[in-house]
Request: fold
Amino acid sequence: MMKKYEFLAHTADAKFRAFGRTLEEAFSNAALATASLMWDWQKVEKRTKRKVKVKGKDLKQLLCGFLEEIIYLLDSEMFLLSSMGKIKIEKKGNQFNLEAFFEGDKYSDKYKIFGEVKAITYNEMEINENRPVTLQVVVDV
Amino acid sequence: MELKKINEYTWEIPKQGEMRVPARIYTSALLLENVKRDLTLRQARNVACLRGIQRIAYVMPDAHQGYGFPIGGVAAFDMDEGIISPGGVGYDINCGVRLLKTDYSEKDIHGKRKELLAEIFREVPAGVGKAGITRLSREVLKEVCIKGAEWAVENGYGTREDLERTEEGGRMKEAEFRYLSKRAVERGIPQLGTLGAGNHFLEIQKVSQIYNQDVAQVFGIQSEGQILVMIHCGSRGLGHQVASDYIRLMENRYGTKGLPDRELIHAHIRSELGQEYYKSMSAAVNYAFSNRQMIAHWVRNVFEKIMGSSKGMDQIYDVCHNVAKFENHKIDGQWKEVCIHRKGATRSFGPGRDEIPSVYRAVGQPIIIPGSMGTASYILVGTLEAEELSFSSTAHGAGRVMSRHEALRRFRGEQIKRDLERKGVELKSTSWRGVAEEASQAYKDIDEVVKVSHEVGIGKLVARVTPVGVMKG
Reply:
């Protein structure tokens, strides 16, 4: 089975590569990598879901905006991602549109949050669309 | 890249290619080795290429690679020609430090350290996912963003005197609420009055050495063994969102072509978007001031409860580490207003500046430099020379040298706690993993960082403090 993601050394922050057979799968795995910096997504129950819609001028902006949803949903609703539901990325003219479902649960005492992601950055961001699709991201922690 | 040694603590990247000014790095041979290993120097060179940059692009002794601008970067821009950049401030807008004095000595609190720390841990919300005390309305959040620490004082958190002893009086007057996104507001509402996580902490400290008795006295530091409290936190999700929002808005308006690094995106200071960012950033600065004001109040309550009194727990000062501001600086022998960016740097005004509280005006501004978890922190004083040397700026902390990932591989939170206890330092945290990530071995040597500041003259040593109790978010 293909590795979902791996972490690389970075002095001040967290850097990961996420992989996928498709762009959608790689985006999904990048979401799990981001969540893994804050909680153990494998231990979160699937009790509720959230639909997210993101637009981007290019793939990098789309990826940034998409991963930001995870931090936003945590801060505003205490929503913890456990797995990715359906995800679709489309190119329309000069714009990329993404629609996806996050599955997960509201934070409660049974879960442990052990880290904070402040922001998704463009620093050293790389998107390789050849298979396996590889996304490299540095997040500010 | 050409790097010219000017003297023992100063290196320069001479003006070349598209650089509009040279870049200067205040560091030591030892610290320079770390800086050379990452992108710090390349990022400093990129900053030197930006429109309207004045004199020199500076890099402080604790520098490491950031996004767009290096952490530890200081740059001033002409108000008409120049730019303002969210990447030049950073994601954690007004991440900063507040220092309170007490009239207690190490002996006074010795038997009560555990109790004090446990009670602070109960009173001050910390860690990710911990909400603040109250669910605020949008209207109240608006007031917080407009009034900053003044809002907190008006609502019973602390005193007027605290405001006087806060950079900007605890309120950036240019702040406006209406340019904040819905998301920034939604992230800000539950988090007011929280410490956060990551490198943020609250420490009970003792004065371990005084280098300059006269200045220490003015700051309220009387003797070795005196207990102080240090609070290190920022603008939480609200500030992070402002940075992300304006990077995207500027990208969409100006495009990213020709930028060596996407996070160097910027706008003219006088442009609509430049002004909107500045006003939103100011709102985030105010949110952070208010945050630290509330936390300081709770700490005083805890001392009152456990020690019987919080008398004498005056604020020494509160400084910003990540901010852009309009200040007067000396350019080509003339004083003029510029837009100064300090990203991971502390203002270090010397004696006489109007911006300094009147009680400190004769000696210079207090500079608070937190170390890494469990190590020393320092109090310095601003100097007159710093104006010519660094637009009155110095270091802001220890600066990481090891990734969190690597720290997690090497250290165990439980072991760090035991090691600290052996050294007489109590530790409480919301997460063992967080403790391991913040291991002091993952940071630069703070002693070396402040030595460079002192030797260069951009901030002079006043006192060294060491922790007796650490609360980590």
About this structure: Strands of chain A lie at 5-8, 14-20, 48-56, 79-92, 95-106, 119-120, 126-128, 133-140. The longest helix of chain A spans residues 59-77.
